[in-house]
Amino acid sequence: MSLMEYLIFRYNKTVALVIAAPQGDNTEEINKCTQKLNAVNDALQELQKRLEEQKQALAAAQKRTSELHEAEGKAKKLESELSTALADLEKREAAVKAAEDEVRKAEEELRNAVNDLNAQETAYKTKCAELEAKSQDSSATQVTRSKAANELAQLKQENPLPLRKAKLTQEAALRRVEKQRKEAETKTAEAQAATKATAKARSDAENQRKEVEHQKELAIKAEEELAEITKQVEKQMVQTQEAFDEAVKELEEAKKKAGDSKGSLWWLDRELKEAKKYLPKSKQ
Questions:
Q1: Is 262 helix (H, G, I), strand (E, B) or coil?
Q2: What is the pLDDT of residue 20?
Q3: Whole-number mean pLDDT of the chain?
Q4: Which of 6, 75, 127, 256 has the largest CB neighbor count within 10 A?
Q5: How far apart are CA 251 and CA 50, in angstroms?
Q6: Could you tell me if 16 and 254 are in contact, meaning their C-beta atoms sit under 8 angstroms apart?
Q7: How far is CA 91 from CA 77, 78, 227, in A?
Q8: Residue 201: which of 27, 81, 49, 56 has the closest Cα?
Q9: CA-to-CA distance for 177 and 134, rounded, in angstroms?
Q10: Is 158 helix (H, G, I), strand (E, B) or coil?
């Protein structure tokens, strides 16, 4: 009786509670606790593994999205820079082409002038030859020969030097302009090549930017899907927490019943504490 009184005092119980305490075997309750505990342990370990994998995948997806966001910014900047450069090159090409057109126009005017001087020189020589032939034509009358000789003499008295000098001057100017026109053509070709190359680079940059944007959209979608799966796993963790609480409750109920547990209750209690480590820190 003294031992009973000591235990009642030691565990803060009442005599009435001790008298009303359930009697009999608690093996069934222990088995039920064991089964539930094993299920909770397996579920916790599996969920913890899945949750960790999902968190790692989500972190990788977020990193990928961030990298693509940065790449998108760089692609847009490059495209903008190339667009500006292309606009400048198009202006330069237009200016160079306009200069080439001016040189071509000057060349055409000089060529027409040289052709005109050549025509005048040819006409002068032709006229002299015709008059020379008439003045020596034995079949013609003396009057005709004399007239032709007089005209030839008058024609030869005219100074052909200004015509020849003008021709030489115009020919020299034409050669200079032809050289300038070739140089202008080279500059135009170079400007066109630069414009074409920059236009291609800008087109490539635009395609690159579009591809990065597409990849970013896919990455965001994947990130959202992973976030949703992670949320579902976390929900399962909550459900497992409830199962854990239920196992603890059943263990406490089993403890209240008398029976020969032979250390089973202590072992179950230990395993429950061990299993609790697998729960999120907020649930511990």
A1: coil
A2: 64
A3: 83
A4: 75
A5: 28
A6: no
A7: 21, 20, 51
A8: 81
A9: 43
A10: coil
Residue 151 has pLDDT above 90, yes or no: no
CA distance 81 to 209: 13
Q: What is the pLDDT of residues 118-135, one digit of tens each?
A: 888 888 888 888 888 888
pLDDT tens profile 136-146: 888 888 888 88
- With a CB cutoff of 8 Å and minimum separation 6, the contacts of 43 are 236, 240, 243
3-state SS class at 185: helix
Residue with tokens 């052709």: 115
Supply the pTM of this predicted model. Answer: 0.58
Query: Which distant-in-sequence residues (6+ apart) come within 8 Å of 224 by Cβ?
Result: none
Token duo for residue 43: 């579920």
Structure tokens at 59: 């972190």
Cα dihedral value 143, 148, 154, 156, nearest 10: -150
Which H or E run includes 28?
Answer: helix 27-135
In angstroms, rounded to a whole number, what is the distance separating the alpha carbons of residues 263 and 284? 25
